[in-house]
Amino acid sequence: MATKMIRDVIRDTIDTEMARDDSLIMLGEDIVGGNGAAGGPEAIGGIWGTSGGLWAKYGPDRVIDTPISESAIIGAAAGAALTGKRAIAEIMFADFIGVCMDQIWNQVAKFRYMFGGKSRCPITIRMPYGAGFNAAPQHSQVIHQFVTAMPGLKVVMPTTPADTKGLLAQSIRDDDPVIFLEHKALYGVKGEVPDEDYVIPFGNARQVTQGDDITILATGMMVGLAEKAAADLAQDGIGCDLLDLRTTSPLDEEAILDSVEQTGRLLIVDEAPPRCSLATDLSALVAQKAFASLKAPIQMVTPPHSPVPFARELESAYLPSPDKIVAAATRLMSYRKG
Amino acid sequence: MQLSREALLKAYRQMKTIRMFEERLHDEIALGEIAGFTHLYAGQEACAVGVCEHLGPRDYIISTHRGHGHCIAKGCDVIGMMKEIYGSLEGLCKGKSGSMHIADVDVGMLGANGIVGAGAPIAVGAGITAKSNGTVSICFSGDGACNQGTTFEAMNMAVVLKLPVIFVFENNHYSEHTGEAYAVGAESMTTRAAAFGMKAIKADGIDFFSVYDAMRELIDYCTAGNGPASIELDCERFYGHFEGDPQRYRGKGELDRIREERDAIRTFRKKVTDARLLEDTDLDRVDAEVTALIDEAVAASKAARRPTAADVTEDVYISY
Ligand SMILES: Cc1ncc(C[n+]2csc(CCOP(=O)(O)OP(=O)(O)O)c2C)c(N)n1
Ligand SMILES: [Mg+2]
To answer: Domain residue spans in chain A?
Structure first.
């Protein structure tokens, strides 16, 4: 067991997988850094610190620094994957998915279906995402809501170092295309990581806290906020069953429904704006399949229907917080029918 | 080209304002006063000013993530810009944008932009308007952005539609940490632009006069109905890609060398004083005025009104 930060777990897991599988390649902007510059290659090793040393170890044919060309990064990774390689593509900020959406949505996600089940496209698209840095409207967004809506893609959102290892290994080894979302605020999170090789199968939520009163569903940075809120609520004798979904596609419906059937109350914390989101999707699931168990209307804690603003005061008002979660939990507990 | 004394002083003031704005931000950011990502333009002043000194409010520019210089050169209010970077409600964009998206459509500045390569297609659209106005649309772009598909599409469309769009490629030799030599496959951005079928030239991006003269030629060419043009400006960025960048990709002594040999402000001063067009005392007076302006901007920004939670959902739509 070693204690590691998530960013180092990502680097080390890619390293292990590259050593394991010669066919694995990786593409992205500045993932090597310093190419064509006086400082020389590996002067940086990735702006997120998630690819240091890999170029030196595996060489430029496998660790490929690209020009600023997101469409070609995804297309090239996909084309390589379709023809026998396994590929990791890094999009520096998830917001830049806008530039390469066709390659992801119309190409990668649909190959297997359109080709009558005859193809494989084992590609892991890694995308740092999320707010909390005052990085303004074009560098702060979440995208899980719309990639989750796309048939053909699997969507992974790790929150702990140990989960990151098992989920990233599974993503890379998976024969389907995977969107692997790394919350920027979690890169520095430290935790124990088992040394042995393991994968975490998709569609298995992780129970973060156990409780009988409220089911809380969360992903990414929202899990930590919900955990803080759950600790506060526990002081008042309110028990929260907090589930970290880990993957939004596939979704662990069973764990969600089992929990709601026990607690009768559902609170969803989502970093996406409230329309056509993961939160609305989960609400619909529970309303359809566990309606009879509900003791109160479902509560969603989300940002408002707006872009992510820049200023400190605006961004913190925009984002969910432990206080907002506690307030929603209080509404749930005090609800009386009729 | 012979410029009047007033025009020379104005150009110098603009360049100096950009330089001092950026140097002051560099210090304020180090103090933790400013949130978010900031990309400083210091070193490239002659590019923005050499282009924008030709432009009026009905000429359009679109900028990049490294946009402060373009904003100042196009006439955005310097105090409003500083307030924006500080995240004030009194900022040019009410604290919604910060450094990376400063814009003022009223002065023909269509925005700094966080998405590399996003500006070029929008500049084509502004070129449609410019064509009907007899003005020009300028797309500022970098040696990194030039590799984005959007830039290729925009260059081709501008040629096809014969629009008065000028693609200004500021070649500071780096896209983030990657060298131009690695990422630009063509011999140069100029040969590439020429291959799209447009007039394509180069100028020295640290020499205001080189940029200014070249741009006169291109603007006349484009407004005469000949279609788009491109200019590649050889220049240097004096700071990191963003504030906080350790710049390990630089060569040994590189920063000292470019600051010594490739300084746009010093180059300008030397040229105008050697030619006896301006005296050092004239220029020193401008320096003092600019220093006072930047001090005022920072003081005003620190005292300016902060946004509140209620402002988050303002301006998402015009009506909803
Ligand atoms: C679509 C997109 N891809 C990547 C980035 C990250 N990024 C920001 S600036 C930059 C380099 C841009 O280089 P260049 O165009 O030369 O401009 P410079 O920074 O030198 O001014 C990169 C890769 C981005 N903001 N948008
Ligand atoms: Mg550059």
So the answer is: 2-193, 206-334
